[in-house]
Amino acid sequence: MIKYELGWISADNLVLENSDVLPEEIITNKSNRNDKRWIPIWYNELLTSGKKLEDYSDWYKRYKNVKEVMPLSQLHTLEFRNTFLTMYDAYGIYCYSIKNIKQKNNVYYLYCELEDEAESHILAFNDESFSNIPDISENQEVLFIIEKNGNRLRVYNGQNNKLIIELMQVNKEWVSSMIKYINSSYKSKDSNLFPIAENLKHSWSNIITGTYIEESNNILLKTSSNIVMNKLMTVKENLKLRSGEATSTQVLTVMSAGTKVKILELGKDETIDGIKSNWVKVEIISGNDRDGNKLKVGMTGWCYGGYLE
Predict the structure, then answer these.
(1) Amino acid 105: pLDDT
(2) How wide is the angle at C-alpha 46 spanned by C-alphas 44 and 51, nearest 5°?
(3) SS3 track for the chain
(4) What is the average pLDDT value for the chain, to the nearest integer?
(5) Distance (Å, rounded) from C-alpha 177 to C-alpha 191?
(6) Residue 128 CB coordination number (10 Å)
(7) Residues 134, 139: Cα–Cα separation, whole Å
(8) What are phi and psi of 152, to 5 degrees?
(9) pLDDT tens digit string along 140-181?
C-alpha cells in the first residue's frame, strides 16, 4: 500500500496503462472481498458425491492435521485484480503480476509474469487441483485466458488453450460453512451449505478446441514478424546494442531513435515487454547514440528486434 495525501492507494485502486480492465463481476478487491469468492466447482462434489478434499489435494491429504501448513480458509481460491492474479492452494500462494489485459467479447487475455519467490514451487503446484499451469521453466512470462459465464468462470493456459480450472462464485458465509463441514469430517452440514447450481448466460467460447491459440497470441502479444535477413530497419526508441543475444550481455552502445541498421543474423525468439520477436545481429548504417554522438558506421552487435521497424 502507498500513502497518498490523506488516503491510501493499494493494488485494488490500480489499473494498467494502455490495458483493458476486468469487469467488476470478476475482480475480487477490497470492496467486495467479503462477499465474493471464486473457488473450484468440485467443491459441489464434496456435498453430493461423498468425495473429500483430500481427493483433490494431495498436499491437504498429507498435511491436513498440521494446521500451520494448510490454511483451510484459502479453499483453493483465485483472486483477480487488474494488476495481479493470485492462486491459493494447499501448498502455497502463487502471485502473477499482470503486465497487460486485452478483452475480446466475453474473453479476457491476461499477460502475466510469475513473481520470483513462487518459481521454485510452481511445479509442485501443477500436481494440485489447478492442472495445466503454464510452463515457466524457460520463461516466467505466461498467458492466462479467462471467461465469465453467469456464476461460473473458466481459466485457461494460454500456451496450449487447455483448461486449468472451472470456478464457481460463492460468498463468505458459504465458505465458512464449508470449512466447518470439512473440519467436522463431513458430518455436520449447515443449512446454509448447499451445492451452487450452474447459472450460465451464454454458450462457452470454443477456446478449448484450439481455435484461440493463434488468436490469443495475436491479440495480446505485439508480434514483430517483419524481420528478415539483410533488411534495412530503423530503431524506434533508444535501444541497447549488446555483445550477445540476451539482456545479461555487455552493452556496447545505446542507439537513439532513427538509427539505421542492417539485419545480419536472426537469433533466438523471446517475448519482452509484451512484444514477441527475435534477437538480431545488426550492422550500424547511420545514426547517433543517446547522447547525440555519431555512431561508428559498420559497428556490429545484437539488439532486440521488437524495437525495430
Answers:
(1) 81
(2) 130
(3) CEEECCEEECHHHCCCCCCCCCCCCCCCCCCCCCCCEEEEHHHHHHHHCCCCHHHCCHHHHHHCCCCCCCCHHHCCCEEECCCEEEEECCCCEEEEEEEEEEEECCEEEEEEEECHHHHHHHHHHCCCCCCCCCCCCCCCEEEEEEEEECCEEEEEECCCCEEEEEEEEECHHHHHHHHHHHHCCCCCCCCCCCCCCCCCCCCCCCHHHCCHHHHHHHHHCEECCCCCCCCEEEECCCEEEECCCCCCCCEEEEECCCCEEEEEEEEEEEEECCEEEEEEEEEEEECEECCCCECCCCCEEEEEHHHEC
(4) 80
(5) 9
(6) 19
(7) 10
(8) -125, 150
(9) 678 899 999 999 999 998 877 888 889 999 988 898 899 889
Residue 117 and residue 128 in contact, taking contact as beta carbons nearer than 8 Å: no
End-to-end alpha-carbon separation of the chain, Å? 39
* pLDDT computed for residue 127 by the predictor: 47
241: closest CA among 292, 290, 293, 309?
290
Lookup: cell for 115: 513473481
Please say whether the dihedral angle defined by the alpha carbons of residues 282, 285, 287 and 289, taken in this order, is positive or negative.
positive
**Rounded CA separation 35/65 (Å):** 28
Alpha-carbon distance 27 to 222, whole Å? 26
Residue 123 has pLDDT above 50, yes or no: no
Do the beta carbons of residue 235 and residue 255 sit within 8 Å?
Answer: yes
Check if the beta carbon of residue 290 is closer than 8 Å to that of residue 238: yes
Model confidence over 176-200: pLDDT tens digits?
A: 899 889 888 888 888 889 999 999 9
